[in-house]
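Record Pyridoxal phosphate phosphatase-related protein, 254 aa.
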Amino acid sequence: MAPADQVSLVTGNKKRLLIIWDFDRTIMDDDSDRWVVVQMGLTHLFKHLRQTLPWNSLMDRMMEELHSQGKTVEDIVNCLNRVPLHPQIVSAIKSAHGQGCDLKVLSDANQFFIETILKNHGIYDCFSEIITNPTVVDKEGRLRIFPYHGSEMPPHGCDLCSLNLCKGLVVKQMQDSTSEDVKKQVIIYIGDGKGDFCPTLKLGIEDHVMPRKDFRLHNLILKSSVPIKAEVHEWSDGEELNKILFRLIDPLEA
Ligand SMILES: [Mg+2]
Ligand SMILES: [Zn+2]
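=>
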């Protein structure tokens, strides 16, 4: 993309650069579900039930187990508050937001874990939207985790994605929005996992995808039989992610 085009992405009042962030192993270096399972002593039960339940229901079951052990939502918050984030990822998020980009999280983790971690690191307000599996704390104080594509929505019918969330469908719905701003919007998609491949296929020639090097998404892109239209920029850690992101955003560096 020519430098002149880059300038137009972020100048003016309109936010036309949309950065979509996966959460686990992207914003957070570890996996939030794994973190809670390991830190709260659920590894054995998790492994025992892994083959019998879909991931999303399994995590809901894990929260039931914590509740039955007398662990509270505060205990879960305390556990999530120990999650470290790479300082360069935190600063990349803050500066991208500061430069007027629209930031969204699109994740197969869950609302409670993501919101707690982002708030703890002071970056929750940098995101205009968090699209993920919804959560509620019920009357008994148990954290419930539900699928994004719940029973009230028609099945997404995508065989690349898990039943509870097709990220490609979410990206497609963003692109199909009738607003003029959205039509001119350029997407930067940052992720690492298998579930990030479907949305990558929805990106156009003006868009960018930033797969984490040597992780599943990167490998799927490398061996894809379908051409990837978006420009691919791989990254290994927070420092590299920060540099690449700002090369894409900052017209002064071009
Ligand atoms: Mg991930
Ligand atoms: Zn899909």
